[in-house]
User: Fold this.
Amino acid sequence: MIKKREINDAVLTIPKPKSFGVSKEEFIKHIAIAAGMADYEFISFKTDKKEFCKSTLLLDGGITITDDFKKSIRSAKIITESVNHARHLVDMPGNVVHPPYVTQVVKKMAVLCENSIFGVSGGDQAVKFGKEVGFDVVDYSTYDAATTRDFTGYISKYKSAGVDFLACHSRPQDGVMITRTMKELNYNPYGYGSLYGAHIIADFGDTLGRDANHVFGTTNFTSAANVPGMKELAAKFKKKHKISADATFTAGFAVLSVLQAALEINPTYNREELKKAIEKVDIKAGEYNNMQIEGIKFTPNHDNAIVKAFVVQWKDGIMHPVAPANYAVREPVWPRPTWAQIEKGA
Assistant:
């Protein structure tokens, strides 16, 4: 008789096969499969390791361990490990999942961007990256943000083509309309988000409410990030202006941080001397009230040499950082829930 199995502090008691209509070997195989599945569900912390906890089945002395018995256990082990590894593949968070994992799930990708220089440059990079990691980029479209008011044609095409991942770069009103069109047509890709643009501004979440849930974006600001002073500054901004801060606000605010640091290097108001001082600025996040992730340090071409961005995912009106790993405050939801599930609170 199989007497019990320990699951952390819990004990699972299992009855005799009695008259189940199966052999003892078949019975133990099914029990071992159930135990292996339970290990994954109840014990394994599946987001930080690929190993799975091992079950210990306690048997009474009345059972003879035959070769058939051992074969049943081995068969159960193979089945449970295969299923658990498949589960593990799609349960890993974004700070663990990297392109080789994602390509196991995402097969087809589409890119949809407004046709400005900024939008097209972002779209080009998305296509380049998608191809590098093995996605089939089935469509790359740009649209005129000044005249396009209907995205039904694009979304219908992506739905019928079975596109798993949609990356966008849109103006604010476009991002809202694209998302609403996806809902109207019940288009449910594994992932949906933006390179920058509409999907990471406060108005996107405020306008769409829960329909913004689980949308991804990349941004250099979110009030949910654990960057010194960021939460406090965002709270002060909202209290004063009655709206939420976003990346546009942070970029403008960074100018003041740079100027303050530059004037401390050279406290003159000579234009050329101020320019030289700005080129020497090297400030971290939190210094001089700077909210830029990692900080600001200029290259000879006047780009920020240490610029980085958060990968965020919307949930309940907040852009939660899910990458890079050292800034992640939660695991991302992947694959994205369906619209029906989002309606029910997912």
User: Anything to note?
Assistant: The chain has three domains: 2-91, 99-220+309-343, 230-297. The radius of gyration is 27 Å. The chain is about 40% helix and 15% strand. Residues 1-13, 41-55, 92-104 have pLDDT under 50 and may be disordered.
